Give the backbone structure.
Amino acid sequence: MNKNQNTNNTKYLKKVSAVVLATSLAVAGVTSILPSMQSSVYAKNVASVKSTAAASKTGTTLSTKGAIIADGEKMLLLTDLAKAVGATAVHDSKKNRIVLTKGKTKMWYDLGNGSVIARLEGSEIGEIYKSKEINGTEHKTGKIYVTVKAVASPFGYRSVWNNSNHTVTLTTEGLNALNITPAKLNPGYTNVHVIYPVISGLKNEAAQTKINQTLKAHYENILKSGEGKSGKMGASHFKNTKNEVAGDYKVLSNSEGVISFRLDSYKSSNGDRAAHSSKGMTFSLKDGKLIQEKKLSVLPY
């Protein structure tokens, strides 16, 4: 891996770390009624062999016999996980990034030292996952292994582990029948990077519209607040700084007729330290009602 690229990723990592939340920071009270989209298990070390996959109507099953284990977590080849969720994988050597694409969803995986930053295309906010590079050199990227949730979660899959058979199945079984795609707010100036979720495919179109309006309004209010502050202060007068507003999201849970999002954002004006915030929103798919809204903590940096 190129050392300069790794240095750039480290700088970016510091920027997003303030908005990356640990799993334990999920919406309080929501996890008790909403099953998590992700399941994790700890297994004994196994010999490294080539990964295999088997597709079925309910999902794709991968062998974990070729997994790499670090800090109690199993990691599989990023390219194998991409195939399991039906995404294509392209390596951008100039940006030291692997891009996964499925339909309208495009994820960037910026490669770092022992981790990847997964973020939606164009987003300034990302999620940090453990990774391992095998057979890489200073000038050539090797095989990239990542935790299963690094791919399953962004593409709307849950993982089902079978330790006795040494397999993991990535499936949508048990999840609500709907689609979630990213959309962008484009107010007309370049320092805005707001990406918000849009759901589709619900039988109840009125509920679907209500949820989408609430989600979009949340980010529009953040944008309005940031834009107003920037307008009062004027253009940033610090060299190499700019006024900016960014937003991103993560699906925390999507089952049993409810859906829960974590909505992240940050605002920075005139070179000031960015103001980060995170909110949890849980909706009923029956009527689109917002049944829980809670402010979440962000990690300091």
